[in-house]
Amino acid sequence: MPSLYIALMHGEVVDKTGNEISSSLTHFDVHDIARSCRSYGIAQYFVVTPLETMRYLAQRLISYWKSGLGSHTIPNRQDALDVVEVAIDLTEVVDRIADREEQPPRIVFTSARAGSATVSYEELGEAIRSGDRPVLVLFGTAYGLSDSVVCRCEDRLPPIRDGEWNHLSVRSAVAITLDRLIGETKK
Ligand SMILES: C[S@@+](CC[C@H](N)C(=O)[O-])C[C@H]1O[C@@H](n2cnc3c(N)ncnc32)[C@H](O)[C@@H]1O
């Protein structure tokens, strides 16, 4: 399986004035994105937040579905939640991937904003399938990723529905991106 990783950034994101902030966790983002990641065979989905209370909340949500009441009411959701890990910041995510893969990932970011992409969905999909190097795709929250994150990325994917009204929920953006990168594996 190609090594594609996803990170949802709650730290190092900006508010509507462009100031760097940390955003709150949204419980739907934890399990809905996990379900998309599980469906598309993603190696790991990192929920990234510098806030201890938010990491605690994320762990509580994960354990609810993996071993709490949720594991009895909807047992197959445990499989999806297996893909989720909680991390403090991008450095921790990159270090964990590098440990697992024995090389650092190619970091790629997404945004709804107009801007020049440096890689197409087709090219990145091809790179993922080649398995030469792990790929980490970053998604933002609030008003998007801060420059401190963007400047650590090697590439930017094109906005989905560029030039049109395109402010997707991050859950939708992840699902569409995964389908564009991986699509169906059985024809
Ligand atoms: C609520 S949006 C943040 C909006 C912000 N204006 C931006 O796109 O950077 C949260 C995240 O969803 C993703 N996203 C939302 N709409 C998108 C689109 N049309 N194309 C690509 N990514 C999108 C991006 O990762 C974005 O950081």
Could you please describe the fold and organization of this structure?
There is one protein chain. The chain is an alpha/beta fold. The chain has a single domain (4-181), classed as Alpha/beta knot (3-Layer(aba) Sandwich). 41% of the residues lie in helices and 16% in strands. The protein has eight helices and eight strands, in the order E-E-E-H-E-H-H-H-E-H-E-H-E-H-E-H. It has helices spanning 27-39, 52-66, 69-73, 77-81, 90-101, 121-130, 147-150, 170-181, and strands spanning 4-9, 13-14, 20-21, 44-48, 84-87, 106-109, 135-139, 155-156. It has a six-stranded parallel beta sheet with strand order 5-4-1-7-6-8, sandwiched between helices. A two-stranded antiparallel sheet has the order 2-3. Helix 1 runs parallel beside helix 8 (170-181). The radius of gyration is 16 Å and the shape is globular. The mean pLDDT is 95. The structure holds S-adenosylmethionine (SAM). The site of S-adenosylmethionine has 18 residues, from helix 8.
